[in-house]
Amino acid sequence: MTGLRVIAGIAKGRRLRMVPGEGTRPIGDRPKESLFNIIGADIEDSRFLDLFAGTGSVGIEALSRGTAFAAFVDSAGPAIRIVKDNLAATGFADKAIVVQQDAFTYLRASPESPFDYVFVAPPQYHGLWLKAVRALDVWSGGLSEDAWVIVQIDPREAEEEGLDRLSRFDERVYGQTMLRFYRVK
Hints:
Elements (H helix, E strand, L loop, with lengths): L3 E2 L9 E2 L12 H11 L7 E5 L5 H8 L4 E6 L2 H14 L5 E5 L2 H4 L8 E6 L7 H10 L5 E11 L12 E9 L2 E8 L1
Parallel strand pairs: 3-4, 3-6, 4-5, 6-7
Antiparallel strand pairs: 1-2, 7-9, 8-9
């Protein structure tokens, strides 16, 4: 991937810094654009959680398009520094919180207010996406009554989830990127 940028909204065109090394896999422009086209205007005034945030590009895109608040969670120090730099560069630091913590530890606590959207993009091929979706399925107080959970995985990672509270309602594939959409039943 040559560069990362905000593709729409008030920070459109702003370049975002990448996390050094091979540990993160930022979402490409095409799947990111599709993701936000599917969400549409409902993103405005919502609360957004970017879990396994990496560069923070998805949460920052949400902020650029009108999300009221975004939380960014990642366990890696370099990712946290990049998210903070990217928030400062786009002017959204005052609408966000950045948490350096293991995602599953974060999901064991109740947030101040429930989230309307949760974007999950963990390291690939470790089954972490499924573990995260199952944790979100039982997250007490974490999801609003009409919340969406969106997962970014490689299509080869796809498997059945076995969920109680969340229901998959859409799935899109863009080359090596699959987006799965869930909502609270």
